[in-house]
Amino acid sequence: MSTEAQITAWLASQKDAMLAELAEMVNTDGGSYDKDGVDRTGTQVKRFLASHGIPTETLPQQKHGDCIRGIVEGGHALGTGNQRSNIVLMGHRDTVFPKGEPERRPFTIKGGRAYGPGVADMKAGIVMNMFVLAAFAKFGGAPGPLVGLFTGDEEIGSPEGRPVIEAEAKNARVVFNSEPGRASGNVVKARKGGVFSVVDIEGKAAHSGGNFEAGISAIGEAANKIVAIHALTDLKRGITLNVGLIQGGQSVNTTAPNCQFQIDLRYIEPADRDEIMGKIHDIVARAYVPGTKSVLTIKGEFLPLNPTPASDRVFKVYQAAAADTGLKVEGEFTGGCADSGFTAALGAPTLCAVGPVGGLAHSPEEYLEVESFVPRAQAMARAILRIDQAGL
Predict the structure, then answer these.
(1) Is there a contact between 11 and 135 (Cβ–Cβ < 8 Å)?
(2) Prior bond to 277 cis, omega within 30?
(3) pLDDT tens-digit profile of 341-371?
(4) Is the per-residue pLDDT at 319 higher than 60?
(5) 3-state SS of the chain: helix, strand, coil percent to 5?
(6) Of 43, 33, 57, nearest in space to 126 by CA
(7) SS3 category, 97
(8) How many structural domains are present in the chain?
């Protein structure tokens, strides 16, 4: 029996175990700002890997969930002269949901779909990576060292996780990021980059009836800036600007002494990021309402995932591996962002959304297609075994 047959047969026998691990993880609080909760999911990952003889390393983080590295030793890249050796299986343990959400909406399965906070995005992908690592630890056959990287703050732009991810990327032969497979069953070959920033505006309070002339409206300033920022949208170039949050003011009869709004910028080409951010800085620096003062702060950022000849070869290997598992998979472009952009930017051939199939992420209706769990794990395992075919 070949190693591929052994691994795929073992994974096929692990469906119930996968669902049990997923239920435990979904029922554990894990919002990005809930460090204790995200670290509890990290403890679960370490416990599982240890039970399969896989050593782990904990990289402590100050504010957010610790990063976990699980390592399965394997062979080496063949005949390429490439010093990068690691095959990286990546994923984030944090979710977007508030504390207590698992108690309100615990893990459930109904009609072939699993539900619960973070069930698809991306706790199922985390569990899948755990079992793929366990399969290679049990049967061997990996054409290089396997690294499972489990981070804890992707949903807010990986402010602490990014340096860890970038360090891993520098020694990565290939990266599989197990974000949820598209509802179509496809994987993601390309993603937009994103910048998430905050503008704080200071004005001057005054009675809007009795002393109007003495006031300086921060809200008036914000309105002008928002119109100018939204006008930077260029759909033909894939550039979008959205002010999704705004707050400010003191009372209806007071000129607003303060205002804050938050900007979501999405783009495709790296050069577009600098161009648009430069224009945003100019808008923020300009006082449309005389006397106002404004400050721009970048709170989070993702880099775009753009295909390369090497990543296209990885996709072809994965596509064939998926076909041998009975899955028809194509590559998609999405405007959503992910940690995969960080690895791709450092030259690591990266394929994203190879996790189990799900949809409606970040909503109470988020779901996972239960029957996709095992086949997607098998497809990844086959792709790893055949990665030499990508010529990396």
Answers:
(1) yes
(2) no
(3) 999 999 999 999 999 999 999 999 999 999 9
(4) yes
(5) 40, 25, 35
(6) 43
(7) coil
(8) 2
Which of 247, 282, 302 corresponds to the end of one domain? 302
- Number of C-alpha atoms within 13 angstroms, CB side, residue 57? 9
Residue in this structure with the two tokens 């497809």, named with its chain if needed:
379
The residue from 302, 333, 351 where one domain ends is 302
Provide the residue type at 48 as one letter: F
Structure token pair of residue 307: 């295909």
Strand boundaries in 55-106, DSSP class E: 56-59, 67-72, 86-92
pLDDT of residue 74: 87
Tell me the catalytic residues.
Answer: 94, 154
Tokens at residue 263, please?
């900007």
Q: pLDDT digit string (tens) for 231-288?
A: 999 999 999 999 999 999 999 999 999 999 999 999 999 999 999 999 999 999 999 9
Nearest to 165 by CA among 82, 68, 75: 68
Model-level pTM greater than 0.70? yes
Is residue 342 within 8 Å of residue 166, measured between CB atoms?
A: yes
Strand, helix or coil for residue 114: strand
79, pLDDT greater than 90: no
Residues 124 and 45 in one domain: yes
Taking residues 136-143, what's their average pLDDT? 97
Find tokens 């260029």 and name the residue: 234
